[in-house]
Automatic annotation (TrEMBL), chain A:
The lineage of its organism: Bacteria, Pseudomonadati, Pseudomonadota, Alphaproteobacteria, Hyphomicrobiales. Coiled coil: none annotated. Its cofactor is [2Fe-2S] cluster. This is (2Fe-2S)-binding protein. PROSITE patterns: 2FE2S_FER_2 (PS51085). Residues 2-106 form the 2Fe-2S ferredoxin-type domain. InterPro entries: 2Fe-2S_ferredoxin-like_sf, 2Fe-2S_ferredoxin-type, Adrenodoxin-like, Beta-grasp_dom_sf. Keywords: 2Fe-2S, Iron, Iron-sulfur, Metal-binding. Belongs to the adrenodoxin/putidaredoxin family. The keyword Cell cycle does not apply.
UniProtKB/TrEMBL annotation, chain B:
The keyword DNA damage does not apply. It comes from the Bacteria. Belongs to the cytochrome P450 family. It comes from Bradyrhizobium vignae. This is Cytochrome P450. The lineage of its organism: Bacteria, Pseudomonadati, Pseudomonadota, Alphaproteobacteria, Hyphomicrobiales. Coiled coil: none annotated. Pfam families: p450. Keywords: Heme, Iron, Metal-binding, Monooxygenase, Oxidoreductase. Its cofactor is heme. SUPFAM superfamilies: Cytochrome P450.
Amino acid sequence: MPAITFIHPDGKSIRIETVGGESAMRAATRHGLDGILAECGGNAMCATCHVYVDEAWLVRLPAMADDEDALLDGTAAERLPNSRLSCQIDITPELDGLVLRMPERQV
Amino acid sequence: MTASGSVGSGVPHLDVDPFDMKFFADPYPTHELLREAGPVVYLDKWKVYGVARYAEVHAVLNDPATFCSSRGVGLSDFKKETPWRPPSLILEADPPAHTRTRAVLSKVLSPTVMKQVRDRFAAAAEERVDALIEKSSFDAITDLAEAYPLSIFPDALGLKPEGREHLIPYASVVFNAFGPPNRLRQEAIERSTPHQAYVAEQCQRENLAPGGFGACIHAQVDEGAITATEAPLLVRSLLSAGLDTTVNGIGAAVYCLARFPDQWQRLRNDLSLARGAFEEAVRFESPVQTFFRTTTREVELSGARIGEGEKVLMFLAAANRDPRRWDRPDSYDITRRTSGHVGFGSGIHMCVGQLVARLEGEVMLTALARRIAKIEITGEPKRRFNNTLRGLDSLPVTITPA
């Protein structure tokens, strides 16, 4: 199963084995990562699973839908060009090794 | 209240009435019975299927093509009966019609808009706590759970000051009307005429103050997103679902924190837990207890065969305490990872006002915990009965300032 890495704002990182094509958000909440709140449970409605995607991986992610784009305008931490919502990133085998940085805050 | 065993399709038939006063007084034993009887049950009393386990509730919520909303999200099937009011353009609609109206309300209640109203909502919460400290003994429902949303939400919508006393009674009718034709529903609808007239009037563009949520909805007409006849009905959705729900959400949170002083102390020690404390109260109490869907085709759900045109009742509250999904489901734990609870629903119809609810809950609990050392329940809490909403009518408390 593909594994992905989350990096906390303090630089500490954690590698997580994903299961069954789950989203990056689901992998994070399953492991109890404090940095991913995911208040809406993955319905692209709350913008509290915000991540910064490692530059090298950005172009390899699925394209952003309009609703995700609009939600990212309302994130608690600054929106950057590499901002995404982790609930909208399903982990396929091609994304094995993906690196995501968590923002300082989600609300 | 017995599971009378399996019949033909293997779906257990139960003779429970989940809209009965005895059930409302203590729904938890029946929730357990419903969950343990099977993944899908049949309720003979109202001739509907029911799902009470987390997995099936989540599955039904997330398959809107099979389990539709356009035939009503209450017991009444709009294909067979005339709805008591013109159907909602968002709640009682399916894609593609739903997609367009949903986008409008999502934009009006977006995270960006919440950032803009946050300071105002927080200041009003502080003012409410000032007034409560002054009183020291009060009713936590009337003076807090109702008074706070009433002090901000109607203004945020842009409503006139006159007639706001219709808002909570109107919402009570709406949520009673999702239930079966019992006394609660019949009486609510019989008394609804003045409330309906007030609401229809306030939804008109000229009655909504500039800059408010209502005016923002009407502004979408100018953008071509919706028509001028659709806009008032979308404003109506906020009037229906935006106030009584948060009253019950905040009431649930205060009731939990008053009953579980250890959790109150945890919150006082770390105010950043306020948002989680509210969210956990929504899971634990589930202010919105149930919703229905209607099948658009014959479908198999966890081994049960359900025909076309059947009503399926989702027990959101039972799913939120399903031990298959939650550790210690009957404990109120403000540090719980609540992501995935279905207190706001799930899927395309998940509460469009969830961000407003969380903001209100967070700033209110933060203000309370910062300034109040202790909340004591000083009298018997009284329950308010509604076919869909669970909450209290009265919660007498005395507080000790910090």
